[in-house]
Design brief:
The complex is a heterodimer of chains A (118) and B (816). By secondary structure, chain A is mainly beta. Helix content of chain A is 0%, strand content 36%. Chain A has one domain: Rieske [2Fe-2S] iron-sulphur domain (Rieske Iron-sulfur Protein), CATH 2.102.10. Chain A has no helices and ten strands. Chain A has a four-stranded antiparallel beta sheet with strand order 2-3-4-8, with no helix packed on it. Chain A starts with 9 loop residues before the first strand and ends in a 9-residue tail after the last strand. The relative contact order of chain A is 0.24. Chain B is α/β, with parallel strands linked by helices and 816 residues long. Chain B folds into seven domains: 167 residues, FAD/NAD(P)-binding domain, CATH 3.50.50.60; 125 residues, FAD/NAD(P)-binding domain, CATH 3.50.50; 79 residues, FAD/NAD-linked reductase, C-terminal dimerisation domain (Enolase-like, domain 1, 2-Layer Sandwich), CATH 3.30.390.30; 51 residues, Orthogonal Bundle (Arc Repressor Mutant, subunit A); 66 residues, no CATH class; 71 residues, Sulfite Reductase Hemoprotein, domain 2, CATH 3.90.480; 151 residues, Sulfite Reductase Hemoprotein, domain 1. Chain B has a five-stranded parallel beta sheet. In chain B, strands 11-18-12-13-14 form a five-stranded parallel beta sheet. A five-stranded antiparallel beta sheet of chain B has the order 24-25-28-27-26. In chain B, helix 1 runs parallel beside helix 8, helix 21 packs parallel to helix 22 and helix 24 packs across helix 25. The chains are: A mainly beta (118), B alpha/beta (816). Chains A and B meet through strand 1, strand 2 and strand 5 of A and helix 18 and strand 42 of B. Strand 2 of chain A pairs parallel with strand 42 of chain B.
């Protein structure tokens, strides 16, 4: 797939209220093994991460959202939503996807395809 | 910090090794402010674990990994550390020591000057390429040699020599070991174990020259080889001396302290000068000198206590044990190596092909020694039995087969002895964490709580079976182990489960947010530990009015299916009492085919598990199962799981009652109930107990005269047989007891506490008192259970198949 032009990389994926507070929904990409998990915090901040825990590839979108972090459902690693990094003392990170909100709509700057399998 | 106006006494410590620093730690744990402490170390390093040098040499650890106390520890604890300078003089009369030409005054002096490597009286010791194996500088030199040179000879086939040989082999050198005696490690192993060891190391490519006396180290510019007395000659670029150690007592002798082979100390660890103490490899106590860690830790404990003002602590040498740090070679020995005379007995087990050898030496029915090869997990247990002088006659038939066998035969479960536990003993089998790693993390990171140790090391963070050991290690290292009756729920709060529950009830909190705010949670949102717990406590307390918080549910309970490791889910329909029929089976088969469900499995709870279902398929899979009458089995929840039954009097020639029918009635009463942890029930039709009712949370065992109700069993991590609660004569009574037990467990157990640990914690007498003796309380509990069931007996699958919580099962967007 040829690289998109920068101005085309921002894609609207839905409204803030499509995601429950302290919850997440997934966005799939054609040809990509991993969805993007889009999180909504208690105070309505929106973050997006590639849906893969750096520990054992667990689906972060199914985790419990707490503050600006999510606990992976498989083994309880806590991943920071803004950076995708694991909270110490664990180490590792997943890709954080840039997000912008315009008039209650969520836009993602979709990253180059990541095809690593889960 | 010193809060008094009087200046503190000055403690000067000569030696920054394991013995001296452990003593300082023991002292500070008891009397942190008593002394102003100055430590002088000859090596330019902070305090490190000398035992682990072998692992550094073998490339399994780095120097940083084996540091016990980094420099920041000294700063944090207000201990002055001078490294890289030798103490040149002690003046006991003036109470000063001299270091780098300057005098330092002490009130108390602690000597931990360690030992020096023994060198044989042979020519060539001065040549470059000849090293001892004693400190970090030696290891650095050996690693460097392994890069630039090929051949190494290690002189000495004892513990240290073999570890050096293995490390150099791992570094890619060809290695030969010269040993004076005919078998290896003859001070720790008997002939059989020594030969097994030589065979194994030989197979790993190490050459042995036993009964070899080194006559000369050959070479002009640097070491080139070793000449043995019997004429054999071995080429070498590196020669490592590891024939033993001797106490380093030069300073003490020059100061006029009483010395023999080592610096003489009494049981109070004092030298002949009452203000000078000594510990470790430099001392001699009752004619003994020391090279292994266990007695030295004990010395540190006594010396630390004495310095802290304890007038009665005395040193009693513990049993000495050894284990070899060569990956994959398991050797252990403790105490005597063989029967000393006819009064002693030896029990041995020898499986040469598997390379397993075990020997236990008994005197007066007590263990006085043990040698283990190949299978060493029971080593610490034997040491414990030795130390406690346990009479083993009741289980001596099983003794040599190890602790697991012997405890079945009535051996007492020993207390946990951390001092006697070797550093490389694996404490946490789930996560492969050794005692050494836990200790290092505790001291390096200053950890003081179990949670912190779990976070940093993962020890006891998985199945939790080793929690008691980890706590004991923490306590041993000076950490405060809070054995409070109601431990904190999680890191968000210091409050315990019981306290929080009571507050919910009495202060009538109605939402998770309200609880967190009113009780001062440190994190506004809570965490993955407290959120599900609070949600459960509210469900249980306010069954009719509480609105379940889906975002406080673990994923399985939120989406009503079990998440698998690949992110797919499993679906387990309920099969009442384990009964099914052609229509249900046909529906399951159809669904499995239609949705290409990869695995269909019979569960342990008499049901069928469909594994590998994609999340978006769940609502339609459920819808089709619903059509055949199948509903959620709650196999994903902290909830009533199964009621397992046998066929009972309807078919079985032994059956005394209709166990299947009763099981179905119980399951119909209890299904849908949320509980602190999963709940599994069973009904057996006769005492043959084919439904395994006696390892269930609650079991019913039918007898001719009625029904025995048993509770608090578990067949999981820690098997627990149920306690007998009561015998009743009618099914109606069974149902009332089951409901009452479910409800008392729901109301009183802590979240994630199964019935087995709960009954063990409260005692079966308490449960009997509340629901057997107190009939009105039983009846009230039963009624509350039935009331709470009214709001939950509504199939969650049917609701979702009809479109409830649809966002859970659909992606938000598909990018084109």
């Amino acid at each position: 797939m040829p690289p998109r032009k920068p101005e085309e990389r921002w894609i609207e994926i839905g409204g803030i209220d499509d995601i429950p507070r302290r919850g997440a929904r997934c966005v799939t990409r054609p040809g990509a093994a991993l969805p993007i998990a889009v999180f909504r915090t208690a105070d309505d901040q929106i973050f997006a991460l590639v849906d893969r825990c750096p520990h054992k590839a667990g689906p972060l979108s199914e985790g419990i959202v707490q503050g600006c972090a999510v606990a992976c459902p498989l083994h309880g690693w806590v991943i920071k939503l803004d950076s995708g990094e694991a909270e110490a003392p664990d180490e590792g990170s997943t890709h954080a996807v840039p997000v912008k909100i315009e008039a209650g709509r969520i836009w993602l700057e979709v990253p180059v395809l990541e095809t690593c399998g889960r | 910090m010193d809060g008094s106006v009087f200046p503190r006494e000055r403690l000067v410590v000569v030696g920054n090794g394991m013995a001296a620093m452990r003593t300082v730690e023991e002292l500070m744990a008891r009397a942190p402010d008593r002394f102003a402490i100055t430590v002088i170390g000859a090596e330019p390093h902070p305090n490190y674990n000398r035992i682990m040098l072998s692992s550094v040499l073998a490339g399994e650890k780095t120097v940083d990994d084996i540091v016990i106390n980094g420099r920041d520890w000294y700063a944090e604890n207000d201990v002055t550390l001078l490294t890289g300078d030798l103490v040149t003089q002690i003046d006991p009369a003036a109470k000063t020591i001299t270091v780098a030409g300057e005098a330092i005054v002490y009130d108390k002096l602690l000597l931990g000057t360690g030992s020096k490597p023994l060198a044989p009286p042979i020519p060539g010791l001065h040549l470059p390429g000849v090293r001892a194996f004693r400190d970090i500088a030696d290891v650095d030199a050996m690693v460097e040699a392994s890069v630039s040179h090929k051949r190494a000879v290690v002189i000495g086939g004892g513990l240290l020599g073999l570890e050096a040989a293995w490390g150099l082999k791992r570094r890619g050198m060809s290695v030969a070991v010269v040993h004076l005696m005919s078998t290896l490690m003859e001070r720790q192993l008997d002939t059989t174990a020594g030969e097994l060891l030589q065979r194994d190391l030989d197979a790993r490519g190490i050459a042995f020259f036993t009964e070899g006396q080194t006559e000369e180290i050959l070479g002009e510019e640097r070491a080139e080889g070793v000449q043995l007395a019997d004429g054999r000659k071995i080429d070498a670029d590196l020669v490592v001396l590891a024939i033993g150690i001797r106490p380093n007592i030069d300073l003490a002798r020059a100061a006029g302290l009483d010395v023999n082979r080592g610096l003489l100390v009494g049981d109070d660890m004092r030298t002949s000068d009452p203000d000078i103490y000594a510990v470790g490899e430099c001392i001699e106590h009752n004619g003994q000198v020391f090279g292994l860690v266990a007695p030295i830790w004990e010395q540190a404990k006594v010396c630390g206590a004495r310095l802290a003002g304890d007038e009665v602590a005395v040193y009693v040498p513990p049993p000495v044990f050894t284990s070899l740090k060569i990956t994959g070679v398991d050797v252990f020995s403790a105490g005597a190596l063989a029967a000393a005379d006819e009064a002693d007995e030896e029990i041995t087990l020898h499986d040469a092909r598997r390379g397993i050898y075990k020997k236990v030496i008994l005197r007066d029915n007590r263990i006085v020694g043990s040698v283990l090869y190949g299978h060493v997990v029971d080593g610490p247990w034997y040491v414990q039995l030795m130390r406690e002088r346990t009479d083993v006659s009741a289980f001596r038939d099983q003794l040599v087969f190890g602790r697991a066998f012997a405890e079945q035969a009535g051996a007492p479960a020993p207390k946990i002895d951390i001092a006697a536990m070797p550093d490389d003993e694996q404490v946490c089998d789930c996560n492969g964490v050794s005692k050494g790693r836990i200790c290092a993390a505790i001291s390096e990171k200053g950890l003081v709580t179990l949670d912190a140790v779990r976070a940093h090391t993962k020890a006891s963070a998985s199945c939790g079976q080793c929690t008691a050991k980890v706590e004991a290690i923490l306590a041993h290292m000076g950490g405060a182990v809070a054995h409070s009756a109601d431990p904190p729920m999680c890191k968000c709060t210091d409050l315990g489960h019981d306290f929080v529950r009571q507050a919910i009830r009495e202060r009538e909190f109605k939402t998770v947010g309200e609880v967190r705010e009113a009780l001062g949670w440190k994190m506004a949102d809570g965490c993955q530990k407290c959120r599900p717990a609070l949600n459960y406590y509210l469900i249980c307390t306010w069954p009719e009015s509480y609105c379940d918080d889906a975002q406080s549910r673990f994923v399985n309970e939120r989406v009503h299916a079990n998440i698998q490791k690949d992110g797919t889910f499993s679906v387990v329909p309920r099969m009442w009492g384990g009964l099914t029929n052609p229509r249900e089976l046909r529906a399951i088969a159809d669904v499995a085919e239609k949705y290409a469900i990869p695995t269909v499995k019979i569960t342990g709870g008499q049901r069928i598990d469909l594994l590998g279902v994609k999340k978006e398929q769940l609502p339609s899979v459920w819808g089709e199962l619903n059509e055949a009458g199948l509903v959620s089995g709650h196999a994903y929840g902290k909830a009533l799981r199964t009621v397992k039954t046998c066929v009972g009097s309807e078919w079985c020639r032994f059956g005394t009652q209709d166990s299947t029918g009763l099981g179905v009635k119980i399951e119909q009463m209890c299904w849908g109930s949320w509980t602190p942890h999963k709940v599994k029930l069973a009904v057996s039709g006769c005492p043959r107990n084919c439904a395994e009712a006696t390892i269930k949370d609650l079991g019913v065992v039918c007898v001719e005269a009625g029904y025995d109700i048993v509770v608090g069993g578990n067949g999981g991590i820690e098997v627990r047989v149920t306690d007998h609660l009561v015998r009743v004569s009618t099914e109606a009574e069974v149902l009332e007891y089951v409901g009452a037990f479910m409800q008392i467990y729901r109301e009183e157990a802590r979240y994630l506490e199964r019935t087995a640990p709960w009954v063990a914690r409260m005692g079966i007498d308490y449960v009997r008192e509340r629901i057997v003796a107190d009939a009105s309380n039983r009846h009230a509990l039963y009624q509350r259970f039935l009331a709470s069931q009214r709001s939950v007996q509504d199939d969650p699958w049917a609701k979702r198949a009809a479109g409830e919580a649809a966002h859970e099962y659909r992606v938000m967007a598909e990018l084109g």
